[in-house]
Each structure stands twice: as C-alpha cells, then as structure tokens.
Amino acid sequence: MNDFRNQDPAFLRGMTQRRLGRRDAFRLAGLSAAGLALAACGVQGKRVAQPTSSAEAQSAVQQYWSGKVKNGHVDFANWPLYMDPKQPELKQFTDQTGISVTYSEVIQENASWFAKIQPLLAAGQSINYDLMVVTNGIQFSQLVELGYLVSLDHSKLPNFAANAGPRYKSEAFDPGNVYSIPWTSGMTGIAYNPKYIDTPPTSYAAMWDPKYKGKVGMMADSQEIGNFGMFLLGIDPEKSTPADWEKAAAKLKEQRDAGIVRKYYDQSYVDPLSKGDIWMCQAWSGDIFQKNVSDGTDLKFVIPDEGATIWTDNMMIPKTAANPVDAIMLMDFFYDPKVAASLAEYINYVTPVPAAQAIIKADADAASGDDKKTLEEVAASPLVFPSEADYAKLRSYRSFKNTDEQKQYENIFQAITTA
Amino acid sequence: MRTLRARLTPYALIFPGGLWLAIFFVVPTLVMLSLSLQSGNVVDGFAFTWNWHSYVDGITTYHDQIIRSLLYGLAATVIQILIGFPVAYWIAFKGGSNKSVYLFLVLLPFLVSFVLRTISWQFLLSDNGILLGPLRDAGLLPQDFRVLATPYAVIGGLSYNFLPFMILPMYVALERIDPRLLEAAQDLYASRMQTFLRVVLPLSLPGVFAGVLMTFVPATSDYVNSSVLGGTNTTMIGNVIQNQFLVNQDYPVASALSFTLMALLLIGIFVYARALGTEDVLEVAAR
C-alpha cells in the first residue's frame, strides 16, 4: 500500500475515484446499443425447402455439379478406428486417380461435430473438409433440413450403383441416396467381459439383473439408451410413441436407482470393460472386435434375442466443399468390392458391399496362421455380413417429425442420464 | 505535456487488459445474455423474444444439479483448506532456503494437462487397479467397494486439481508475516498455540480468502471431474450446460443456466466477503 504514496496523484485518482458524467452516459449508451444490436440479430436459421419432385431434385443436381472439375485433392473428415492407420485404401486411390487425400480423424461425436461446423456452414464458409461421415439421426436430418449437403450426382457413382447392397440404396433416412451414401453400418448390442460373466447374456433383462449391481455401463446418447429401454419392453423404437418413451424411461430409471448402472458412457466404455470396472455394457459392434485384435483382450459382443439397433454412418459432401468432384470420386472408390473388403477386414463393421464377402474369403484362403483365422472370422461374422434373419431383428433409431418431438424425446431420456 | 502524459498513463496501462476483457468477456457475456432470452431451435433459428422461460425451465429441471455443484465445490474447498494450509505454513516457515523448490513441486503437476491428470486417476483408482485390487484381494475392502463413479471420486478430483490455487495465495500471505511479530508474541508470554491463533491465523486470512475464491468458483462450475470420475447421480451443472450447448444445441437454456450459476456464485461470494469481513482482513494485511 505504501508505494501508492509516491505515485502521481492522477494515477491514484484514476484508480480509486468513480467519475460520473458525460463519459458514463456514453458508456451506458454504447452498452445498451450493443445489447440491442445483439438482441436484434439472434441466431439465423435457414431451413430450406426440400425438392418435391424428381425433376426438381434433378435440376438441383445439375445446377450444383455443372462446371465443377477435379482439383487433384480431397480433405476427408472421419471418425477414429474407421480405417487402418496405414491407410492402404487411400494410397491406392491416389495411385489410381492422382488425387491426394488428407485423412483426419476429427469426428468424435455427431452432436459436437455438428456444433462445430454449423456456424461455418450457416455463414457459407468452408469447413475445410470436402467429405465427412455422419450417422443417420438427429444431426443428419438437421444437415439436410438446413440445406448444408450437396445433392449427389449419381452419374458419378457407378460403383455404388453396381455394388451397394439393395438395403443400402433404400435407407429410410435418405431415400434415393440424394445426399449420402453409406460408409458402414454397425449394431448397438451388449458387450461383456467373460472373465466376470459366466453365462452369456441373451436378453436385455441381463442388464437389469441386480447381481451385476454397479457393474453395468450404459450409453449417455439419448437415442442409444432409449432404444435399449424399448427393446427390453418389446417396443419397436422406429414406431414408438411418446407414451412408449415414458415407459422405457421408467425402466431405465429403475435400473439407475437400483444402483445397477455404474455410469453413462460416451465412446469411453471399452477400457473400463476390459479392466473390469464394468462387466457388461452397451457397445458398438466393431469397437469390441478392434479392441480384441489390437490389445489381445477377449471381450464378447452379443445381439440380444429381442433385437438390436442398427445405424449407418454416411459419407456426404458439405455444401461449401472446395473439391466436390474429387470427394465424390473417393466416395465411389470405396464401393469397389476389393476396397470395401480391405476396409471391412480392418474395421469389422457391416460393409454396404455384399460382394466383399467372397473377396475376404479368398484373402483368408491365401493367408496363414492368425491372419487366416481372423479373416475367416470376419467373412463369417454376422456383424460384418448380417443375414436376412439378422436384419429382421435389427431396428433403426426413431426419426422425428419436428424439433418439438425430438426435444421431447431428448428431455425424457436425458432426465435419466444427466441426473 | 508532462501532466497530459501522466494523466494518460493509467489508461495506457489498463488498455491491453481492458481490451482483452472487453473482447473476451464483456462481448461474450452480452451475447450470452441475449441468447438466454431468445427462443427457437437450431434449424428454424433463434429470435429474441424476452423468453424468460429458459430460466424457469432450466432452474426447475436442473436445481438438483445446481445444488449438488455448490455442495461439491464447497466440500472440495474445505478439503483444500485442510490440506493446503499446513503445506503453505510449512513452506513459508520451515521451507528455509528451498522454498522455491517446494513451491515448484506444488506446481509440478500443472505441467501435465488437466484432463490427462484426471484420467490418470481413473487408471489409479480402477476397481481392479494397482491400488484397490491388492487391497480387495487381501480382504481389506468389501467385494463391491469402489471409488470411481462415486461422489467421493468427483470431490477428490476437484480438490486435487485446484489445490495449488489454494496453496499459493495462502503461502503468499503467510510468507509476508514478519518473523519479529512471532518473537514479539513469545516475548509477551503467548504460548505457541496462542501465537498461531492470534497472530498467524488472522494475518493469513486474506490468503485463505483469495484461495477460496480461486478454487470454489472453478470447482463449482467444473465438468471434467464429474464426467471422468463420476457415475450416475453425480452430474454437475457444468455438465448440464455443456450438454445443452453441444449436444442439444439448446443455446437459450444453456445460457440461462450459465447466468443462473454466475449469479449464485456472485451472491455467494458477496455474502462470504461480508461474513468474513474482508475489509478488516485487507486492512490487517496492508498494515
């Protein structure tokens, strides 16, 4: 304090006294003007009208693609664990086409990815990626509704036309593949650690069994956890009503309040499962396979008798992409059965290219030792090549008619996970 | 000329900091205030409608999480005082010529990222990990005992992560105490306990006050510890706000909750400052 005595009095005054007067009036006026300006602007929404006829859709395609040329480069945004880190497929693509690819594993979660790119797309700015992978679901619908996605020119997708399984050409969330083609599909089922669980769970009821108190992991994602509650009750999530959601939520609340659930996880459930913090959890099919292959763990994944959730991660081009032609060429490249087989061998998720199965079998015959065993397993795996009987048991997420309905759904299930 | 320069000096000095605050604090705060009163959704856009409902909805839905956050923050702060005060005291009075080494040791964990440090707790405290596994095998812990995914883990993580912010201000206050005061107290026949209670403790209170401010506020609004170390029923208000912003894109409710939390913390701090009589404390410190 003493030091202040030696200071210039002006300094002391400036530090200690309040000055009222014109200056304050200006300041206040400035502040409230800024406030008003902010109040007035709000956040712009830009819902765009969807094409109502095929002619309209066709003209949208022509309008966008006319005059677009190959630039020799593509920036690809994808999720982790969705490609061999050595990226052999991308090298092959570059060799074949001369187009270089920058591959970034930047997408961790649909919601946060959407939150990141939405302001840029709303402002018409580049997100620095020409190709991205988003799951069917709330954010995908929002991208479509907001007109952030390029209408695909199917004349540039010959491999897709020739090789995609019929199911992947008629997905309910994007009929006619106007905006997207699948990267891969996967299932959400039950994973368990056989070190702690002797009898493999065959029903969702196992996750409500009090003997696993504190050892069950559920997902925080409201669509994933909602589906589990509904499957337990025998409700088809695709056709569910708000009353069904309440019933499912009541079951999930019961499970939580009985102390059975240890935690609601994002993708971080694999480690606790292998360490034994949890014995059983909601899981995505390919994750468990990849963990077993990379870390030598012996985790198991089951599709319960009641059925399970199937989702599709889709490739799409954002409207502000700098290299759309290169991007669509890469999309089509992944539908070459050889490329699809090579991808499936590594990631072990459902490939949208059925012809890949024969190629993986051939690869298995040519391989030896552990590799042979792994490849044979992949070729025979219902998680990579589900049979029609398997598909019959699989259900999608509930799609929402409008944002109010979606909000209602989220509120019901987030009351469970964010308590 | 000289007087003009002298008059401008304080403003020139405050200019960089002031500009920083204006751009990164005042503007975002105003944007958030405006957002908290808007209604709409991310697809149709948001419009300013004096929509106070976000506050009402936010508080009625999430009052449990708000109260829990305040309690966790308070618990962590008390634990930090109990752990931090002896440490600060010891460094200030018994640290000798190695004081800076000890202070560096206090700060050392900060060279590692906050999130990584918290995740390493996950590793250490895992049910079958290097700590709990052997204890359970030896029969010292019940079979279903766990630390992770409990409120204790969250409070422990909060206490650990913000501890240096408690120790450093307390150390500064204790270090400034003139040793001659202690000698004087002894000359006046004060016992060691009396010296501590009537000389050291009052003089250290400004440090404790600053430490509480620097730990209670961030601990209460933290979301990393709860999401990494917590389980069910340990969600803090920070997690809810993050979820509303990034998952639901419900910007109005997220902003309203942020403002509610800010208001509660400000009220808490003012009450605390009054109750502790900060002005007296500061006067003592200045003497």
Question: How is this fold's topology laid out?
Answer:
The complex is a heterodimer of chains A (419) and B (287).
Chain A: H1 9-16, H2 22-41, E1 43-44, H3 54-65, E2 73-77, H4 88-97, E3 100-104, H5 110-122, E4 131-135, H6 138-145, H7 158-163, E5 180-192, E6 216-219, H8 222-232, H9 242-257, E7 261-265, H10 270-275, E8 280-284, H11 285-295, E9 300-302, E10 308-316, H12 324-333, H13 337-347, H14 356-366, H15 369-380, H16 388-393, E11 394-395, H17 403-417
Parallel strand pairs in A: 2-3, 2-4, 6-7, 6-8, 10-11
Antiparallel strand pairs in A: 4-10, 5-8, 5-9, 5-10
Chain B: H1 2-36, E1 38-41, E2 45-48, H2 53-94, H3 99-107, H4 114-124, H5 132-137, H6 151-175, H7 179-187, H8 192-221, H9 224-229, H10 237-246, H11 251-276, H12 278-286
Antiparallel strand pairs in B: 1-2
Helix pairs in contact in B: 1-11, 2-6, 2-8, 2-11, 6-8, 7-8, 8-11, 8-12, 10-11
Structure, explained:
The complex is a heterodimer of chains A (419) and B (287). Chain A is of the alpha/beta class and 419 residues long. Chain A has 2 domains: 54-185 and 311-392, D-Maltodextrin-Binding Protein, domain 2, CATH 3.40.190.10; 187-310 and 395-417, D-Maltodextrin-Binding Protein, domain 2 (3-Layer(aba) Sandwich), CATH 3.40.190. Chain A is 44% helix and 14% strand. In chain A, strands 2, 3, 4, 5, 6, 7, 8, 9, 10 and 11 form a 10-stranded mixed sheet that branches. The radius of gyration of chain B is 23 Å and the shape is globular. Chain B is mainly alpha-helical. Chain B has helices spanning 2-36, 53-94, 99-107, 114-124, 132-137, 151-175, 179-187, 192-221, 224-229, 237-246, 251-276, 278-286; strands at 38-41, 45-48. Classes of the chains: A alpha/beta (419), B mainly alpha (287). The interface between A and B is large, with 46 and 50 residues. Strand 1 (43-44) of chain A pairs antiparallel with strand 2 of chain B.
